[in-house]
Fold:
Amino acid sequence: MGTTFSGSLDGRGLRFAIVVSRYNETITRRLLEAARETLHENGVSEEGIDVAWVPGAFEIPLVAKQLAVTGRYDAIICLGCVIKGETAHFEHVSREAAHGIARVSYETGVPTIFQVLTAFDLTQAMARTQGALNRGREAALAAIEMARLMERLRRNRES
Ligand code: INI
Structure:
């Protein structure tokens, strides 16, 4: 019988970097708080969480990559909020954030979690940063699970 690989939600001893954008900061702070809280709830220590602030979602991938290549982190969590305005700027920013964040994962092998909200208005964004629905929580859980899964896959490669 073959092997089934899966991660776990045990964050003890893991290290994370969170890249968070200041644009729409009311929302991104809420994502950050929920992500931090969830990491702690799952055993990640205060010293295990570094945070880097960037101006907007467009700048997230560069900083995420810079952090990923240090080799210090088990996963990178990217938090941002893009809200549709009256021009196509929204499309460019959200597309590049998504592509860029995915590329960081593929190029570095470090799980890089995409939690850049793309909303049509502030109400939609607020709804996704409340209570159990807070997407910062989802991002933190995905980061722990992916960190543990990658660790498991590395062990499998070495054995
Ligand atoms: N950045 C965001 O994070 N969210 C937005 O909604 C947004 N809009 O709508 O313009 C936004 N723009 C700034 C962008 O991310 C860069 O910081 C800027 O273009 C400088 O490179």
Remarks:
- The chain has one domain: 16-158.
- The two ends are 17 Å apart (CA to CA).
- The helical segments are 25-41, 60-68, 89-108, 122-127, 135-158.
- The CA atoms of residues 20 and 148 lie 23 Å apart.
